[in-house]
Amino acid sequence: METTLIYKDGSSNKFWNINVAGKSYTITYGKIGTVGAVKVKSFHSEEACQQEAEKMIKSKMRKGYIPANAVDQVMKDGSMSDPVFWELIQTAKHKGEDAEEQIEWLVNHLAKKPVKDIVMFDYIFNQNYQKSYTSDLWAAAYIIMGGASDDSFDYFRAWLLFQGKEAYETVINNLKKSYPILKKKRMSPN
Prior knowledge:
This protein is α+β, with helices and mostly antiparallel strands. The protein folds into 2 domains: 2-67, q64v53_bacfr protein fold (Single Sheet); 82-187, no CATH class. The protein has 7 helices and 5 strands, in the order E-E-E-E-H-E-H-H-H-H-H-H. A 5-stranded antiparallel sheet has the order 4-3-2-1-5, sandwiched between helices. A hairpin with a 4-residue loop joins strand 1 (2-8) and strand 2. Helix 5 (135-145) packs across helix 7 (165-187). The protein is globular, with a radius of gyration of 21 Å. 15% of the residues are buried.
């Protein structure tokens, strides 16, 4: 669900946008025609997130905000999207000899972007990072590494994301199919 509201009077010309996705929402607000500032908030359930979003929309409308027309360009789009996120990950892998140099390039590159793009990069990263928090992946990491503490599993998931979209999605999408095979091999006496 996405809702964009505007407020115009003698001295104000601003927008407020909320985009609800699962258990979190992203609010973008500011002067019409700008990228605006961004806030992201997560909840324990989708229902709690949706209820809070609806409450905030009603509150803004009581203050005089009105729905924006679909054809109005009230906020300048940021350039961060899912494809751009994965492209940056892929590019970073070629920007140094080791992971430290690659991450340094990525941080420096993001630091030059608008705040909205940085927040969206973080949001996309965290959505994928949370998606990888499964018992099946933890079991696979345990088998691969010969053990996996909480911290080492977190590092493993970040490493998996840094391998790129194709590797990440292949693992996530195929793990449930291959986990029984891995389990059987681990238990096999040979």
